[in-house]
Amino acid sequence: MAPLNYTPSRVATVYCAGTQFDSKSNDVIAWLNQNTTKAQGETFFFPGPGSGEYADTLITAAAARTLERSKLASSALVGLPARVLKAQLDLGTGAATNIDAMTGFSLRANIDRALDLLRASATDGMVINMAGWSRGAVTCVGLAYRLADDPKLSKCPVNLFLFDPVPGPRSANIWNWTK
Predict the structure, then answer these.
(1) Using one digit for the tens of pLDDT, what is the confidence trace for 68-81?
(2) Could you tell me whether strands 126-133 and 10-16 are parallel, antiparallel, or unpaired per DSSP bridges?
(3) What is the dihedral of CA 36, 40, 41, 42, to 10 degrees?
(4) Alpha-carbon distance 179 to 177, whole Å?
(5) What is the pTM (predicted TM-score) of this model?
(6) What is the pLDDT of residues 102-121, one digit of tens each?
């Protein structure tokens, strides 16, 4: 946390929604995103897993192993867009969105995208605020770990505002309860 007399040159704020929530949802993260000032810097909003934005996210090997364990797919799906699951598995409308909501594999995509955007906008003296709910809170924690290891961003003070951090169901989520 930055000292009380610290005056940032810039503030970057990252909002991460929970599972199946986006910027138009009626929840605390969407409300904060819409109602906080953007005068000092940039804001970035990331929808939660299962919100539908990641239907074209490529299925990773880890996600395929999770799906295989839950008897939904095989490792043959690695590298396919998640939207292909509907055709491959005949799971019906919204299958990719539902699988993303269940497994949370787009959480990693949010972390990667946020890190790239923060690197691109980084300045000396920048402070990074992150607010997240549910899996969005877990996304913020994951991003904080990545920021600590990043040569360009590791010196930036980070403030976390986390509401009900939950990584998702243990049986289907490849990232939860391990760290």
Answers:
(1) 555 444 444 544 55
(2) parallel
(3) 20
(4) 6
(5) 0.72
(6) 677 778 888 988 999 999 98
